[in-house]
Amino acid sequence: MTTGSVLTRKAATLRLVHAGIAAAELGSLGYVWACAVTGRRDRLLAVCVGALAGEGAALVIGRGNCPLGPLQRRWGDSVPLFELVLPPRAAKAAVPVLTAVAMAGIAAVAVRPGRSG
User: Fold this and answer.
1) Phi-psi region for residue 2, left (φ > 0), alpha (ψ -120 to 50) or beta?
2) Domain locations in the chain?
3) Which is more confident, 2 or 91?
4) 43, 97 Cβ separation under 8 angstroms
5) DSSP secondary structure string, 3-31?
6) CA 23, CA 34: separation in Å to the nearest integer?
7) Distance CA 99, CA 49 (A)
8) C-beta of residue 49 within 8 angstroms of C-beta of residue 104
9) Of 113, 114, 106, 117, which Cα lies nearest the Cα of 52?
10) Is residue 41 helix, strand or coil?
11) Helix H or strand E segment including 100
12) pLDDT by residue (tens digit) across 34-78?
């Protein structure tokens, strides 16, 4: 199946949910880094760190790959999510790069003195 192929309703729904999860995780990553830079500490930071930790656990379960990938393929969508917006080589590098950026952001939050609010 190519990116131009028509997806089944189930595959299209999963792609939309998957994209929503990815957007939330990218937002979490941005918020963690904003808190690392500003020293802000609040409940949203804890939620964002938890979301990134959950994604990390999912990647461990998937042995470095998104665990939604096999379900996505089974439901008729053979295009990995990142390949919808990035060239294949960059898409393959996205997970390790984003993992490193997330780990660095969480470490930066941990070592920088914080302020409430």
Assistant:
1) beta
2) 9-112
3) 91
4) no
5) TTSPPPHHHHHHHHHHHHHHHHHHHHHHH
6) 16
7) 12
8) no
9) 106
10) strand
11) helix 88-111
12) 999 999 999 999 999 999 999 999 999 888 888 898 999 999 999
